[in-house]
Every structure is written in C-alpha cells, then in structure tokens.
Amino acid sequence: MNSSFRPPMASAPCLLGDETNEIIRYDAAPAEVALLNGLSHAFGICLNEKQDTPEALFLSDLARLFHQKRIDAETPLEKHDRPWANVYLIQYGILRLFRESPTGKVAIHHSFTEGDLIWPVFGRSRTVRNTLCLTSVLPATVWVADFAAFRSAIQSHGDGLWARFALVLTEEMAELTSMREYRKHTMSAKERYALLVDEYPELIKRVPDNQLASWLGVVPATFSRLKTAAKS
C-alpha cells in the first residue's frame, strides 16, 4: 500500500451510543449508489462524476428498471416449470442456483454472492421447460428487474450489445459447469473439498454444510468427515 495514503479515521463502534462532538459520523450512501456500483461492475464500466457520458446514461436507464427487495432465508425467487422472469443483483446475501428432481433430490450448480448479477442465461430457462430454481440461502437484499425489460433496454443502446454482454456470462457459467464435472470425475472428494475451501473461503463460513455437500457432489455425512479431517 502507498505509504502516503491515509484513510479517514472513524470512531470506534463502541462509542456510537455516546453523545459527543468527538465522534466522527458519515452519512450512509443512498441505496441507489449500491445499485449503480453493482451494474457498473457487471458491465465493466468505470463510474466517474460525469453524468452525461453514454456509459453513465446507459447505467441510469438500467437502474430505473430495478427495485430493491429484502427477503428471508430460503425464499424461492425462481422455480422450475415456470419461465424465469427476473434479473437479480445481490447487494447483500447469498443465492443458490439448483435443480430438484421429482423425488426431491437437489443438485446445486452455483452460489451467488454480493455484487453478482443473475439472469436466465439459457433460452430454455425463459420457457415453461425451465428446470432451474433460484432461492436465497441467507436473508438477502437484492435488486430486481423484469428480464424482458432489462434485455430490451440493453438492446436499445446498440446493435450487438446484448449479445456481447450475454456471451460473457454464458461462457463463464459453461466453464464453471464443465470444470465441476471434470473435477467430479477425475478427483477424489478430499481433493475437491480442498479446492472448495481454497476457492470459496467465504462460502465455507456462510453456507450450511448440507448445501455445500450438494454442491461438492457428496452426501452430508461424507462432507462432515472431510471437514473434520481437514481440521485435524
């Protein structure tokens, strides 16, 4: 870190209950700032003070489509056999993407965290043939927009813009899926668990073990043994 940089000093949280002029207080940023920051990150756009640039106008148009929603843990957002309707930007919390068989067996495909933008990547997901489900893992604060309006707004800002944006996430999801399948067939459960701890340390702390077990492709009892062995 540059030694010339000195962050502003804030008062200790334990003093905030006291009424004293020495306490430094900062106004909370408006919720819309979090939304714009999330969208700018998703589209790789650097925000600055200029509000009339094409990039800033583009993000403002998208932001108007979203509304904030607070949800409890285990709240279903998208269900199978129904067209996936919305786009979600996570401000706080974790959401899981999964499939569930008629017998109740669950296969978790991915966990999304703060800053992630989630939308129906695959065309089938936008029809009644949708097999994907999206549910909150923890209490969460998300920004929600209608998917059709979101896609239309992006398309209106330039030919090929939607295709370029969609391709990035489609390729990312395809790569994650293929890599998970490769590891499942070529690595032991112990090796996969070690990679899970290394690559997703925050999820290990925040997601219930039974869901991590499903993501790893093992039964909860096996996951428990792997976790215990890793600590010894």
Write a brief caption for the model.
This is Crp/Fnr family transcriptional regulator. This protein is of the alpha+beta class and 232 residues long.
Features:
4-stranded antiparallel beta sheet, alpha+beta, 232 residues, disordered N terminus
What does this structure look like?
The protein is an alpha+beta fold and 232 residues long. Helix content is 41%, strand content 18%. It has eight helices and eight strands. It has helices spanning 31-43, 54-63, 147-155, 161-186, 189-199, 201-206, 209-216, 220-231, and strands at residues 67-71, 76-78, 86-92, 95-100, 106-112, 117-118, 133-136, 140-146. A four-stranded antiparallel β-sheet has the order 1-8-3-6. Strands 2-7-4-5 form a four-stranded antiparallel β-sheet. Helix 1 (31-43) packs across helix 2 (54-63) and helix 5 crosses helix 8.
- Cα distance, first to last residue? 35 Å
Helix amount: 40-55%
Please summarize the sheet with the most strands: 4 strands, antiparallel
Rg (CA only): 21 Å
- Going across the biggest sheet, name each strand in turn: 1-8-3-6
Average of per-residue pLDDT values? 85
The arrangement of helices and strands along the chain is HHEEEEEEEEHHHHHH
Residue stretches low in confidence (pLDDT < 50, at least 5 long) are 1-16
